[in-house]
Amino acid sequence: MRIGDLARETGVSRRLLRYYEEQGLLRPRRLANGYREYGDTDVAAVRHIRTMLAAGLPTAVIARLLACVHDDGDRMVPSACPGMVSSLQRERRRLAETIDRLQTSQQALDTMLATVLEQRS
DNA sequence: ATTCTTACA
DNA sequence: TGTAAGAA
Fold it and tell me: What is the pLDDT of residue A82?
């Protein structure tokens, strides 16, 4: 199928599908005319990409983990491949740090907000 | 009609 | 990520 078909079947824009390819997430074959040719398995692949993106994983990590998951028909099933667990754990820690920074920012804003509201009253 | 690449008010 | 432009 070509990019338009995949876009329709996945709900992901053609622009984004090309971006996924740039990031090494999809490797469609090329037709003689230069058009991208996707396989049927790419439909599930895109769903997996969306799932991992939603989990906060960076595309570089997703590119590697994509080969470690298979499709159970409707959901992504992570299989224990080498590096899978450590990668996920490392990303979890990375997210925890991001959350900490955001909480610090929120605390700073709360302080400023409390101050300005106090002066107002 | 579709897709491709490149570039950015 | 969208959209526009110019080409195939």
Answer: 83
